[in-house]
């Protein structure tokens, strides 16, 4: 059995050609390496704060393995508080595994793939619905592909214990999870409410879930993880996190495949995130500047609302809502 030793902090920088990445690594005795990413999108402060809080908690704690924390994965987007980089318009979550000689965002993705993800044993990527969106707090993983990697990813999602989990049969290209899958590294991602608001209960759930995964992976003993969670997460667990948990099976979770607005206008939402909807249900009405009805955005299948635009003014083609398959008990 591995004896955990007090984690030593070793920070390092990774040059990308433009912005440097600041990596905070906590290293104890021999054991697995877990990579924790925040800020892949610059308008999602929840993951940045959660990653920093986990990094802050682990210094000096008995750790069997290493936790490599990149709290701000896309510095130019973070500095602009925007989803994409103002330097090249790049969305880091569409740029993996990256290209060392590509445009700036592709170089950031390549640097993360090689110097941060590297030969890690697990990736945890913390997101939220961003400035203009809303999502329920959930944990997602790739259930398709290599069955051994998928089983490890599912185990991490179970340990994270979000009230809602999304088991994807496929994930679109360019994601950090895509890069992890190519390297045979199990991975989970987490989404939260977004909208420019950081909810303490969700931030706490991200920290608590990450600590629980570190315990499940053997880096922390269960008592230490529970003690750190008790210190660092003052809010009560989210409803569902301790009892009836749900899983959505299938679908890619790709916001690029959301229902979109057919024309510019103002959205009047008719559902909430996390709500169950039946086939044909109206998710939102689109009206023009004079309040005249333009179209109903509807769902073509039964399911649960996983994303809803909260910014009312839309341009033609803007993502309005994403409905995932009906969840089951998990
Ligand atoms: Zn994101």
Gross morphology? globular
Question: Which stretches are poorly predicted, pLDDT < 50 over at least 5 residues?
Answer: none
Helix content: 10-25%
Briefly note the structural class of the backbone: alpha+beta
Q: Measured on Cα atoms, how large is the radius of gyration?
A: 20 Å
- Write down the overall mean pLDDT: 94
Largest sheet: 11 strands, mixed
Helical region count? 7
The fraction of residues in strands falls at 25-35%
Q: Which molecules are bound besides the chains?
A: zinc ion
Number of DSSP strand runs: 20
- What distance separates the N and C termini? 31 Å
List the helices and strands in order.
Answer: EEEEHEHHEEEHEHEHHEEEEEEEEEE
How would you describe what is shown here?
By secondary structure, this protein is an alpha+beta fold. The chain contains 7 helices and 20 strands. It has helices spanning 45-58, 75-79, 104-117, 147-160, 176-182, 200-216, 222-232; strands spanning 5-6, 8-14, 21-27, 29-37, 62-70, 122-126, 133-134, 138-142, 164-168, 187-191, 246-249, 259-260, 265-269, 276-277, 282-287, 293-298, 303-309, 313-314, 319-324, 328-329. Strand 4 (29-37), helix 1 and strand 5 form a beta-alpha-beta unit. The relative contact order is 0.14. The model has no long low-confidence stretch (mean pLDDT 94). The chain binds zinc ion. Zinc ion binds at residues 40-41, 44, 93, 127, 130.
